[in-house]
Design goal:
The structure holds two protein chains of two kinds. Chain A is α/β, with parallel strands linked by helices. Chain A contains four helices and seven strands, in the order H-E-E-H-E-H-E-H-E-E-E. In chain A, about 20% of the residues lie in helices and about 25% in strands. Helix content of chain B is about 60%, strand content about 0%. Chain B has one domain (about 15-240, about 250-270): Ferritin, core subunit, four-helix bundle (Ferritin, Up-down Bundle). The chains are: A alpha/beta, B mainly alpha.
Chain lengths: ~200, ~280
């Protein structure tokens, strides 16, 4: 495979913006807010001359610490750029921590269209009392009650299929670390909710 | 590979004590993560099976960041895997509470196998008591003088809120549930509460962390923790048992016999095939 002689940042950005999230393939890693930094660095060759080969240094931020998709994302970045003849180095940055607030408006709309309710704002909640709401009080009054910062799960979550806010949480934890299970009380469909993080 | 944003030189106190403190936090997360993962495929209901797997994943993720950081600081060839899989019980710094089997008052050690007896009330009470502590500790650690620890804490703070919410919900549901569920969660509480005394007796690593601004004075969190616990127990119609008696010292490396069984299960494969990659 011939290495690229030169590449522009825009070309690299275009490649990166097409890499899908491994778990939710409708949304790209850029839209998810995982990509923090992209830099092009010319490598020097053995003679110390500036080489024509370019290394793409990419910084990503992990979503959930235990999310197994992070390794996959790293591999996907390296292989997507390798296909374009580019060498990539992927590093991880922990601070500031990734938040669902970094999901782009386009990304949020794609999530909704895919059947996953996008997350509410993850405004930093204060440690404090976490209220309990019995599962069986799946009434309209409960399901649409105003969100409170102390209760990340009991916000009014909009059904991605029929837009009703008459929904209830089935389980705090869903198919992946980032999602909770919900059910719409109007159209009766179950759906995933991307938890604010 | 992690890019460290802090190095040992930025932390102005004894490096061994500092590593001990980081291992205490990491081992807590790993051992509880391993214990909770014993429910994988055996949860009382499907949603809870998934919840336990999710919580374990978060805890093991926290442990991984901390081990990766410790490995950087040690710079002696240690890796996150060698720290998790090749240390012996007396090297572990987790609270004794977190290594206990999921069964109240069982005198003998219980391996974490699929056939081991498990009581979900014990699982819930332990997760609640620990999450209530970490809900207070992690935000404090976000202000640590160790920037890398602060960065890890900022992530963990987000995760522990969901863990506390989950275990508190179930504590109330079981406590204020049927006679049987009430009795089982009360028994679990009587069994586990004495182990929480270990939270409040600072180890030398915790004392060193406090004096270097790395971590808070753990005893200062006790009043807030009591309030979190008492409010939940009130709502759950449970009686708070006395927390007196022997104070365990898992965080100083003095463990119950149960830890060896946890490690036997967790480390067996890696130790049979050292250096294997998969």
């Amino acid at each position: 495979m011939a290495l690229k002689q030169s590449v522009s940042l825009a070309e690299v950005e275009a490649i990166l913006s097409h890499i899908p999230d491994p778990e939710i393939p409708v949304i790209s890693i850029r839209e998810l807010g995982i990509l923090r930094d992209v830099r092009l660095d010319a490598e020097t060759d053995a003679q110390g001359d500036a080489s024509v080969d370019v290394t793409v240094n990419i910084t990503i931020t992990p979503t959930y610490g235990g999310c197994p998709a992070m390794d996959q994302i790293r591999d996907d970045i390296v292989s997507a750029l390798a296909q374009a003849g580019l060498t990539a180095r992927v590093s991880t940055r922990l601070a500031p921590p990734w938040t669902t607030d970094w999901i782009s408006p386009e990304g949020r709309e794609k999530l909704r269209a895919y059947g996953i309710a996008p997350p509410h704002a993850a405004a930093r909640p204060q440690p404090g009392v976490i209220r309990f709401a019995p599962k069986n009080i799946a009434t309209h009054a409960y399901s649409t009650r105003a969100k409170t910062q102390n209760d990340p799960g009991n916000e009014a979550v909009c059904c991605p299929r029929c837009n009703s806010v008459n929904t209830t949480e089935t389980s705090h934890f869903g198919s992946t670390a980032c999602k909770a299970l919900y059910r719409c009380l109007d159209c009766t469909e179950p759906f995933d909710y991307f938890k604010p993080y | 590979m992690m890019a460290p944003v802090a190095t040992a030189s930025t932390v102005d106190h004894d490096i061994d004590q500092h590593i001990d403190y980081l291992l205490h936090l990491a081992d807590n997360a790993l051992i509880l993560g391993q214990r909770n993962a014993e429910w994988c495929g055996h949860g009382p209901i499907l949603e809870e099976d998934i919840a336990m797997a999710n919580i374990s994943l978060d805890l093991i993720g926290q442990a991984r960041f901390l081990y990766q950081y410790v490995a950087e600081l040690q710079a002696n060839g240690a890796t996150e895997d060698s720290l998790a899989y090749f240390r012996n019980p007396d090297d572990f710094r987790n609270y004794t509470l977190l290594e206990l089997p999921h069964f109240p008052g069982k005198s003998g050690p219980l391996a974490g196998t699929a056939s081991a007896e498990r009581d979900y009330a014990t699982t819930i009470v332990r997760n609640f008591l620990y999450s209530a502590l970490m809900q207070l500790l992690w935000p404090n650690l976000e202000r640590s003088t160790d920037a890398q620890l602060a960065a890890i804490a900022a992530r963990a703070s987000k995760e522990v809120r969901y863990h506390l919410r989950h275990s508190r919900d179930w504590l109330v549901r079981l406590g204020d549930g049927t006679d049987e569920s009430h009795q089982r969660v009360q028994s679990a509480l009587i069994h586990l509460m004495p182990y929480t005394q270990e939270f409040w007796l600072p180890s030398s690593a915790e004392a060193a962390a406090f004096s270097a601004g790395v971590g808070p004075d753990t005893t200062s969190l006790r009043l807030q923790w009591n309030k979190l616990v008492d409010d939940a127990l009130d709502e759950a119609t449970l009686q708070r048992p006395t927390d007196t008696g022997h104070v365990t010292q898992g965080k100083n490396g003095l463990h119950s016999e149960h830890l060896s069984y946890v490690l036997g299960e967790m480390q067996g494969l890696a130790r049979q095939h050292p250096g294997a990659e998969w």
